[in-house]
Amino acid sequence: MKKKNTEINPEEEKANTQESVENTPSESENTEETTEVKDELSEMKEKYLRLYSDFENFRKRTAKEKIDLIQSASAQLIVELLPVMDDYERALANAPQGEISEGTQLIFNRLNSILLAKGLKELPAKGEVFDADLHDCITQFPAPTEAEKGKVVEVIEKGYTLNEKVIRFAKVVVGN
Fold first, then answer.
1. Is the pLDDT of residue 14 over 60?
2. Per-residue pLDDT for 116 more than 60?
3. Which terminus in the chain has less CB density within 10 A, N or C?
4. For residue 22, is it within any domain?
5. What is the CA radius of gyration of the chain?
6. What is the residue-wise DSSP string for 138-170?
7. For residues 176 and 173, what is the distance between their CA atoms, to the nearest angstrom?
8. Are 151 and 171 found together in one domain?
9. Are 95 and 40 found together in one domain?
């Protein structure tokens, strides 16, 4: 059995050290590489932050669009129900006392409460100052008094808002 030589020859050690020194990059090359890596890292971080920001904006925008779509879908249904409400109110106003049953009134009240819960509100009109953003002037009549000039004298058709957005303008007669 042969013993392994565990002693290191000093000449071999010197040669190994010289090879390792020759293979390592100089300090200037090392600094240049470090600078490039740092620049690349900061560029990647900036790209990541922009991408993350774009994704967050996209997520918020799609959530808002989804809510708007749901609200506009219900708005269309409510707009189609408004003439039914108008017809019932006209029938109630013109019917002799006791002709419209209590059950029919309960149904109307239930429908009205559901629409109110969904955000439907009646626009105030009679006696209010005419506002083109809320009212649609059908005609003008001479005002009976000076105080009624420029104000709504009569409401032909009620106006409504849904979630603070006008879905039907009030058709009104204005005092001139």
1. no
2. yes
3. N
4. no
5. 40
6. EEEE--SSGGGTTBEEEEEE--EEETTEEEEPE
7. 9
8. yes
9. yes
